[in-house]
Amino acid sequence: MGHLEKNDYVLVSGFAQTPKGTPLNEMYKHIGVQLLMDRKSNRIIKSDFSVISSLTKEVLQDLVQGYCIDEPFGNLENKIKKHMSIPSLGAVLQAIKSAIDRYKDTFKVQ
């Protein structure tokens, strides 16, 4: 994993339902996100998103990489909303929040 020691990172995932009435929902029922977290800094190192286009994935990865989950989620949410307007945005944000919440719950992060 490059500059990280094996014990310094953890992979978490989150999911959300795709928006009804969209082509995405016709093909897939859920959007998934995987976040590679640096346990020392609580920052997102890398991310991956399921069932979205490669361009959307690239933009999302650029926006979330480096985000510290010690900050309010609204900061990240506003940053993403400033740069994206897609029908599945609510589901994407919910999946990210779900993964972050799982990380906080599992590793007792305040």
Structure report:
The longest helix has 19 residues, at 89-107. α2 crosses α3 (73-83). This protein has helices spanning 23-27, 54-64, 73-83, 89-107, and strands at residues 9-17, 30-38, 43-49. It is globular. The chain contains four helices and three strands; from the N terminus they run βαββααα.
Layout of helices and strands, plus pairs?
Elements: E1 9-17, H1 23-27, E2 30-38, E3 43-49, H2 54-64, H3 73-83, H4 89-107
Antiparallel strand pairs: 1-2, 2-3
Helix pairs in contact: 2-3
Write out key terms for the chains shown.
110 residues; alpha+beta; 3-stranded antiparallel sheet
Main sheet summary = 3 strands, antiparallel
Q: How much β-strand is present in the residues?
A: 15-25%
Cα distance spanning the termini: 26 Å
The coarse overall form would be globular
What integer is the average pLDDT? 88
Beta strand count: 3
Pairing-aware structural class of the strands and helices?
alpha+beta
Report a brief summary of the structure:
By secondary structure, the protein is an alpha+beta fold. The chain has four helices and three strands.
